[in-house]
Design brief:
- The protein is built from six helices and 19 strands.
- The protein is α+β, with helices and mostly antiparallel strands.
- The chain has a domain of 121 residues: Ribosomal Protein S5, domain 2 (2-Layer Sandwich), CATH 3.30.230.
- Strand 16, helix 4 and strand 17 form a beta-alpha-beta unit.
Length: 273
């Protein structure tokens, strides 16, 4: 695998899911070996696990007092679509939520196309399993010849227990994962608002479940677990390498994903930026 970057810059704007503020982002081509970097004013924040500062309902990266929230959807699209290097210029406190999925990001990357760079992509090849857990929640990486994900999610009804298994490549990502929207239960929304989160959420950018079922038509019967896979891929983008491994996730979230990525980076002997 060779490294790639975007053929041209991509721009997205809109409301931030958690702050409700107007945000914009420009994703620019970057040089080989640059990886993903968030540019927050004059501060450069490498998109690696060492710079995760919060995982409450979203993955927040930061450095020297500057932070950017809700990074996982954009990083998921970039990573799964094969982009290895990009500068991400952000105006506002978070990445625009768009429709709550990664479909617009993935479609824009697909339309833009990738520029191959004259450097091999860094690959993670595991020699033994790496497992992190928290009670009945678990995420583990096992040696494998390619990148696969198996995810078991378990939520109260009407979502219930859902399962997804699949190879992660651009075609599979666009067709089976990118369009899955972020979701919440209606009874959770008030608590989110009280905690200062979900300020920009609406039926236009989040899938809401009531006791009777979803308030909008589902894109897949198991859309909730597909979104969890989308998030997992975005959090794993902080690895800084393409994983040749199979991920097994059981009821995991951003915090466990961050712990796994940190553990995997330690095995790669990657110095802090």
């Amino acid at each position: 695998m060779m490294q790639t970057t975007l053929r041209q810059s991509l721009r997205f704007g809109g409301v931030g899911l958690h702050t409700g503020a107007h945000c914009s982002v420009e994703v620019r081509p970057a040089a080989a070996d640059a990886g993903f970097t968030f540019l927050l004013g004059s501060i450069r924040v490498p998109a690696t696990a060492e710079f995760v500062v919060d995982t409450t309902r979203a993955t927040v990266l930061g450095r020297d007092g500057a932070t950017v929230s809700t990074t996982e959807h954009l990083l998921s699209a970039l990573f799964a679509m094969g982009v290895a290097n990009a500068d991400i210029v952000v105006e506002g406190p978070e990445i625009p939520v768009r429709d709550g999925s990664a479909s617009e990001f993935a479609a824009a990357i697909e339309q833009c196309g990738l520029q191959e760079q004259f450097a091999p992509r860094r690959i993670l090849d595991l020699e033994e399993p790496v497992i992190v857990r928290d009670g009945d929640k678990l995420v583990a990486a096992f040696p494998a010849p390619s990148f696969r994900v198996r995810f078991l999610a378990d939520f109260p009804q009407p979502v219930g227990t859902q399962y997804f298994s699949g190879e992660i490549d651009p075609k599979q990502y666009v067709e089976e994962i990118a369009g899955a929207r972020t979701f919440a239960f209606l009874h959770e929304v008030q608590a989110l608002l009280a905690s200062g989160l979900g300020q920009g959420g609406s039926l236009e950018n989040a899938l809401i479940f009531t006791a009777d079922g979803p308030m909008q038509p589902l894109r897949w019967p198991n859309e909730a677990v597909r979104h969890k896979v989308l998030d997992l891929i975005g959090d794993l983008a902080l690895l800084g390498a393409w994983p040749h491994c199979e991920l097994i996730a059981i009821k995991s979230g951003h915090q466990l994903h961050s712990s796994l990525t940190t553990a995997l980076r330690s095995r790669m002997r990657v110095p802090s930026a």
